[in-house]
């Protein structure tokens, strides 16, 4: 038997943001400061709402506690997460704790967080990846409206993450026919959008990717990427190389096409400051990504992959 978990309602495509009806007395949670968030709220046409716009990037569980403290007695109808991953994660956790519905509206795309049961927050200064059914959205609204004004580098990294998640997810041992169908379709949409300059299709592709990998997992590429994240390399950028060498190692059916996409987007070579041996030890403890990898991975394999990344041997 297989189980698939996706939001109850998904609104997507042109005008999804402005044509969706939002409940009265909802709390909007966002990282975006006033001139920007009021522009978004106008576009949504939302009325009678409350606003918490003090979510910090890479938020701490303390922020969730503050939100609950301030709003739990206000009879909220829903929590609306409006923003990037940080806003969505605070909305996921606080609405789950308060037992009220959540609506997730990603303004950056790529992670597919609006489709998944994942939630990333800092506890005692350390980032933790949580996965619980109660973090799933009651409604997600996906609209390419927000792409206007997103810096080119952010777009590039985001779409690379979406491609990596879709293709790694396809190969995950935790997958099934449904997740493979979604992941394959996600990559087809993203590949076409990247190669034929149709960036307006990125949010839809990343939504499909979220539905796919969110119901299985990512694999070796993501496991390799975290040693670069630790050195401050943006997530999507590190995947440009990490997922490519992982696909080579796994003999993935997406190896060639993923490489084409990376070349088209144009990424620099990755550098690793930590000694390869040490980095490999860090990768090896990431069982959450290595166990579902289609081929068993040894420390020697990881060292080889890291050396290939460093030397640009893709
Ligand atoms: Zn990712």
Q: Order of strands in the sheet with the most strands? A: 1-8-5-4-2-3
Spatial shape: globular
The assigned CATH architecture of the largest domain is Up-down Bundle
Summarize the helix and strand pattern as letters: EHEHEHEHEEEEHHHHHHHHH
Structure description:
- The chain has 314 residues and is α/β, with parallel strands linked by helices.
- It folds into 2 domains: 9-147, Rossmann fold (3-Layer(aba) Sandwich), CATH 3.40.50.1970; 152-311, Dehydroquinate synthase-like, alpha domain, CATH 1.20.1090.10.
- The protein has helices spanning 16-19, 34-44, 61-71, 85-98, 152-171, 177-195, 202-213, 220-229, 235-250, 255-265, 276-284, 287-290, 299-311, and strands spanning 9-12, 26-29, 49-52, 79-83, 102-106, 118-123, 126-131, 139-142.
- The longest helix has 20 residues, at 152-171.
- The mean pLDDT is 96.
- Bound molecules: zinc ion.
- Residues 161, 165, 222, 235 line the site of zinc ion.
Topology:
Blueprint: E1 9-12, H1 16-19, E2 26-29, H2 34-44, E3 49-52, H3 61-71, E4 79-83, H4 85-98, E5 102-106, E6 118-123, E7 126-131, E8 139-142, H5 152-171, H6 177-195, H7 202-213, H8 220-229, H9 235-250, H10 255-265, H11 276-284, H12 287-290, H13 299-311
Parallel strand pairs: 1-8, 2-3, 2-4, 4-5, 5-8
Antiparallel strand pairs: 6-7
Bound molecules: zinc ion.
Zinc ion binds at residues 161, 165, 222, 235.
């Amino acid at each position: 038997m297989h189980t698939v978990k996706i939001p109850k309602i998904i609104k997507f495509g042109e005008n999804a943001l402005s044509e969706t009806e939002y409940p009265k007395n909802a709390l909007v949670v966002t990282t975006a400061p006033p001139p920007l968030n009021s522009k978004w709220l106008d576009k949504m046409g939302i009325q009678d709402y409350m606003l918490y716009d003090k979510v910090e990037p890479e938020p701490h569980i303390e922020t969730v506690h503050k939100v609950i403290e301030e709003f739990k007695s206000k009879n909220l109808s829903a929590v609306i997460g409006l923003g990037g991953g940080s806003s969505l994660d605070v909305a996921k956790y606080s609405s789950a704790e308060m037992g009220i519905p959540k609506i997730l509206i990603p303004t950056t795309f790529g992670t597919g967080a609006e489709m998944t049961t994942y939630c990333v927050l800092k506890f005692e200064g350390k980032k933790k990846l949580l996965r619980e059914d109660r973090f799933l959205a009651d409604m997600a609204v996906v609209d390419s409206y927000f792409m206007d004004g997103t810096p080119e580098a952010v777009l590039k990294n985001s779409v690379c993450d979406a491609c990596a998640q879709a293709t790694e997810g396809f190969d995950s041992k935790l997958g099934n026919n449904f997740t493979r169908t979604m992941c394959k379709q996600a990559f087809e949409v993203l590949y076409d959008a990247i190669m034929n300059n149709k960036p307006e299709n990125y949010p839809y592709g990343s939504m499909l990717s979220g539905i796919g990998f969110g119901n299985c997992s990512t694999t070796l590429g993501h496991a390799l990427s975290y040693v670069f994240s630790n050195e401050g390399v943006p997530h999507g950028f590190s995947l440009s190389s990490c997922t490519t060498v992982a696909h080579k190692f796994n003999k993935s059916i997406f190896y060639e096409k993923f490489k084409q996409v990376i070349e088209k987007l144009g990424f620099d070579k990755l550098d690793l400051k930590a000694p390869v041996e040490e980095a490999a030890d860090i990768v090896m403890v990431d069982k959450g990504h290595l166990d579902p990898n289609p081929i068993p991975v040894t420390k020697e394999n990881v060292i080889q992959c890291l050396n290939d990344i460093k030397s640009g041997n893709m």
